[in-house]
TrEMBL record:
It comes from Otus sunia. Its cofactor is FMN; FAD. Coiled coil: none annotated. The keyword NADP applies. This is Cyanocobalamin reductase / alkylcobalamin dealkylase. Keywords: Cobalamin, Cobalt, Cytoplasm, FAD, Flavoprotein, FMN, NADP, Oxidoreductase. One of its GO terms (cellular component) is cytoplasm.
């Protein structure tokens, strides 16, 4: 699967968050943030769907990611490996981890937020932040977290994420596009990117989830029939 792994340790993440969002591991616990790149669609998702066509598929992307991370775990038979997926939530309805914060502290992608703009033009409006990757811009996704509870990394040096949207004007443009025009995807191209989603992939993610099966050659009726 086309995945990028970025290396943080738990303490870097916990240090910048309120206790309610802390990961319940010692500070020096080794972790990896898992990102999917644009080529994941053709190199991982479509082959996975073709292979699993006769099995129950409820969410193709989530099940594809789960499949490949399970294979990663199998590479470490003598290690305990915990996986947290980006969509998992706690009983309190809080996410199990804050994906964009994790990507930032791992040095994978810069998490641009309102506080990164000196002259705030938005008044009382709610403004959400967004991660930008130095190679893929906004054409990537944060899929999960791999944790190795039995591995402590005492002397790991933290790498800062690349500040690829460095001007005030561009940061305002990015947050404006992401918060008020996210459907058109322009925020993803806030920088010059090396690779972006294919037209087929754009169409897939722009389609309501219930209608995506047909784009992969699946039918919901066929999926239901596998229950019987």
């Amino acid at each position: 699967m086309e995945i990028c792994f970025s290396l943080p340790k738990v303490g870097w993440y916990n240090a910048i968050l309120q206790p309610g969002f802390h990961l319940p591991y010692p500070d020096d616990t080794l972790a990896f943030v898992v990102l999917s790149t644009p080529s994941m669609f053709d190199k991982a998702l479509k082959p996975f769907v073709n292979k699993e066509r006769l099995k129950i598929i409820r969410d193709p992307v989530d099940q594809c990611v789960s499949h490949h991370l399970s294979r990663v775990k199998e590479k470490f038979p003598d290690q305990k490996v915990d996986v947290i997926f980006d969509y998992e939530i706690l009983p309190s309805r809080k996410p199990k981890f804050l994906a964009q914060t994790a990507a930032h502290v791992a040095g994978a992608a810069y998490y641009y937020q309102r506080k990164d703009v000196k002259l705030d033009p938005w008044g009382k409006k709610k403004i959400y932040g967004v991660c930008i990757h130095p190679k893929y811009g906004g054409w990537f996704a944060i899929r999960g977290l791999l944790l190795f509870p039995d591995i402590q990394v005492l002397f790991l040096e933290q790498s800062a994420p690349v500040d690829c949207v460095s001007t005030e004007e561009k940061r305002i443009e990015l947050l404006e596009q992401f918060n008020f025009h996210w459907q058109d995807g322009r925020y993803r191209d806030i920088i010059e990117v090396k690779e972006r989603y294919s037209e087929e992939q754009k169409a897939y993610f722009a389609t309501p989830p219930a209608e995506r099966f047909r784009l992969l050659g699946l039918t919901q009726e066929a999926q239901r029939s596998t229950f019987h």
